[in-house]
Amino acid sequence: MKSKSLSILGLTLMAAGLVFFALRALLPGLIIPSHDSNGEAPVSAGEMAADFKLPSLSGKPVSLSSLRGKVVFLNVWATWCGPCREEMPSMETLYEDFKNRQDFVILAVSQDRRGKIAVQPFVERNHLHFDVLLDPDNVVGDAYNVSGVPETFIIDRKGRIVAHHMGAFDWSQSDVRQALNELLDSKEG
């Protein structure tokens, strides 16, 4: 029994490692532990994701802990950020590709100080359908040591960050979908 448990643990760690390295190869901006200008290490792949609870555009509160068991694509952005605006269409494409997966969630956390007044028109004008959360007090940015926007974190079913990307990215690429499908199909991911 003990050797079976060790075998399962070994296979689980190997699968998680393969997913991590696949995502790392696919995302050139993946963060490896280092320090920012303030001497604080950015949150990196392999760490547990900090919990938070924020209102969505509809006013419904969403917490990361309530999504445990799902793979979460967490993007920190702002309407005034050019690179954020550039990557939003690819995030919408990714959402459309995965919207039927009950175990995958996109959360776009807006850091706009004006909250819903700034964010709602942007979302409507750009026909975005994924969940947008309002964070005018920068709760998520502080918890994740975000040094600029956009920053994206891929969080596995157990709440562990498996990838962290800084800067705009084309999330609609087939290799991104492939890596996410592998993570979603993994029993441990």
Written description of the protein model:
This protein has 189 residues and is an alpha/beta fold. The chain has a single domain, classed as Glutaredoxin (3-Layer(aba) Sandwich), CATH 3.40.30. Helix content is 37%, strand content 19%. It contains 5 helices and 7 strands. The protein has helices at 2-26, 82-98, 116-125, 139-143, 174-185, and strands spanning 53-55, 61-63, 71-77, 104-110, 131-134, 151-155, 161-166. Strands 5-4-3-6-7 form a 5-stranded mixed β-sheet. A two-stranded antiparallel sheet has the order 1-2. A hairpin with a 5-residue loop joins β1 and β2 (61-63). α1 runs antiparallel to α5. The longest helix is centred in the N-terminal third of the chain and has 25 residues, at 2-26. The radius of gyration is 16 Å and the shape is globular. Residues 2-21 and 28-39 have low confidence and may be disordered.
Task: Provide a concise account of the structure shown.
The chain is of the alpha/beta class and 189 residues long. The chain has 5 helices and 7 strands.
Count of distinct structural domains = 1
Question: In CATH terms, what is the architecture?
Answer: 3-Layer(aba) Sandwich
Q: Please state the overall shape, judged from the principal axes of the Cα atoms.
A: globular
Q: Which CATH class is shown?
A: Alpha Beta
Sheet of most strands = 5 strands, mixed
Q: Could you name the ranges where pLDDT drops below 50 across 5 or more consecutive residues? A: 2-21, 28-39
**What is the terminal separation in angstroms?**
24 Å
Our estimate of the beta-strand percent is: 15-25%
Output the radius of gyration.
16 Å
Determine the CATH topology: Glutaredoxin
Overall residue-averaged pLDDT value: 85
CATH superfamily: Glutaredoxin
Number of helices: 5
Helix content: 25-40%
Judged by helices, strands and strand pairing, the structural class is alpha/beta
Oligomer: single chain
Order of helices and strands: HEEEHEHEHEEH
Number of strands: 7
Q: Give the neighbour order of strands across the main sheet.
A: 5-4-3-6-7
